[in-house]
Amino acid sequence: MPPTAADPIPLVVRFPALARIPRVALGEWPTPVQLAGATGTGLPPNLWIKRDDLASPTLGGNKVRALEFLLAGLAPGDVVLTAGGEGSTHILTTASYARTLGALTHAVRWTHDMNPSALTVAERARAACDRVTTTRSPLIGLLRAHAQRRRTIRWIPPGGTSPLGMLGHVNAALELAAQVARGEVPEPETVVLPVGSGGTAAGLALGLEIAGLGTGVAGARVAPRIAAGRARVLRLAERARRYLEQLSGEQIAKVNGARVEILHDVYGGAYGRPLPAAAAGAEMLERATGIRLDGTYSAKAFHAALGRANAGTECTLFWLTYVGRVARP
Question: Would you say residue 298 has pLDDT above 70?
Answer without folding.
Answer: yes
